[in-house]
Structure prediction request, 416 residues.
Amino acid sequence: MVILRLRHALGRHRLLALALAGLLSLLPATPAAPSPLTTDAAAPSTLDTTPSAPSLTATGTPLRNGTGLYPRVIRLAHNGSANGRVLASVVTFDGNNGIGAIHESTDSWATFREVGRVADPESAAGQGLCCSTLFELPRQVGALAPGTLLWASSAGQDEQDRRMALRIWRSNDVGRTWSYLSSCAVANGTGGLWEPEFSVAADGALVCHYADETDAAHSQKLVAARSYDGVHWEGHHNIVASTWAPDRPGMPVVRRLPNGTYFMSYEICNPGGQYQCVVHYRTSADGWNWGDPANLGIRPETADGRYFRAAPTIAWAPTPGGGADGRILLIGQRLLNRDGTPAAGSGRTVLTNSRNGSGAWTAIAAPVTVPNPEVNYCQNYSSPLLPSADGRRVLEIATDFEGTVCRAYFATGSLP
Prediction:
């Protein structure tokens, strides 16, 4: 999905300076047009990052004042004395400059404060910034030490005759300062590149998964590339690419399970019908080979047929007291009933599975409630989950509108 980008029947018209590819890509892709706006009309030109106490729509505590889009959250595990700290990132604005804001919690998720910023010159002056990710290297990759932080985004979507890139930045001081590292993909035309996601494959390669609009044979597809040094990228190949051109796989999120299996969630948007933007998953034994790209994967659902539509994320949690497989946690923008109508728990539900994704999934309460989310770039859009180390609690960061501003809220809840 594209942050702050809406698809219309007559073309692609952005509401805001950013875009998140695919969410509202419910119609076939059309040629990109320059954005008429360079900033979110509601975004402040000077950011005060001390949270205030607004009249909330979503439950939870504001992560920051002002705009906070496409949140991501990690717990440090390879940074020595900093291990256990939680870092959260969002896309925000400083005037018409796209910014990756990095926040830190050192008190078990009770509070967050901004500790760093990624200010990419390729996302400044209204060029566009979208759908960033945050990752801690679990092992050495080339000269990059374990614990190196990586932040990546889609840059340049609002330029004239654009050539988008998935640009990667690194930090060696727990997110305080950042420097440009490389790009895992650069468009050869005006098509979009969206939603980068990192993992480390079984052979030690750093893998960049992303949504790709540059292939004329596919409205959008999922692609992966790998690097053995974090700088040089190779092996770009399709992961999910439908035989029906209008299908739009997007928004990949990957986690490695305790049994060594790699689990990927994603959405598949298309021109219409009950299953537009429905969440799917597939697995890989090595984190690089995912099988036939034309195989669209499996739709996770509960025993009574409820399933998620759009913007999924996943997390893995240990099972308190044992259980080798632990649990997979899945969340999506809207929860639908078997017949495609909105379910009663939409905007307030997490699905769990203790069989590595097989069989029926179980619904539990989400920590943050986003009442009755609609299909848009903000409400409950790509909400990350972070379970506690013992698997008894989970942190969620979700976004919702406060007036015209899309804000991020966080809260914790119990895992049954």
Confidence is low (pLDDT under 50) at residues 1-55. DSSP finds no helices and 27 strands in the chain.
